[in-house]
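Reviewers of the previous submission asked for a worked example of the structure-prediction workflow described in the proposal, so we include one complete record here. The input consisted solely of the amino acid sequence. No template or homolog information was supplied to the procedure at any stage.
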Amino acid sequence: MTTKASSRTPDESLFAEMGQFIEELTASGALLATGGLEPGGLRLTSVDGEITVTDGPFTEAKEAVVGFALIEARSQEEAVEHARRFRRIVGDGESEIRQVFSQ
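From that input alone, the workflow returned the following C-alpha cells.
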C-alpha cells in the first residue's frame, strides 16, 4: 500500500491512531514493513543503451508517494479493508494497493 502527500498536519491524535493500527497489523502478522519515502529521489531512463540519471522531484508535491506499508493479505478484499482503515485514520488523500509478485 502506498500513500500520497496530503494537506493534513500530523497531530498527537493521528500518531496515536496510527500507532495502534501498526501494532494491530504487526500482532496479526499482516504488517511486514513500513516506511516514509523522500519526495525527490532519482529517475533512471534508458534509451538505446544510454542511461540518464535525473534528480527529482518529478511530480507536483501532492502527487508524490510519501510512504508505504508492505502487508501480507489473504485476499484482495483483506488488503482493501486494511487500506480503508488507514485512509479513515489519515483522512482525505489517495493511496494505492499493488501486489508484490514473488517466485
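The beta strands are 2-4, 31-36, 42-47, 50-55, 65-71, 95-96. We consider this example representative of the routine output the project will generate in years two and three.
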